[in-house]
Amino acid sequence: MRSSLLRSAAVMVTAGVMVALGTSSALADTKEGQHVVDVVGDGSSVHLDRTSVEAGSLTFKVSSTALQAAGGSTITMFRLKPDKTLTDVAKGYQEEFSPVTGAQGTRDLKAAATFYGLADVASGVPMAVTETLRPGTYYLADSGTPPASGVPSLTTLTVRGDGSQAGGDSDRSSRLTVTATRADRFVAPKTWPHEGTLTFENVSDTLHFMAIQPVQPGTKDEDVQAYLDSGAQTPPPFTVLDRPSGGVDVVSPDVSLRFTYDLPAGTYVLLCFVADETTGMPHAVMGMHKVVVLD
Ligand SMILES: [Cu+2]
Question: Model-level pTM?
Answer without folding.
Answer: 0.88
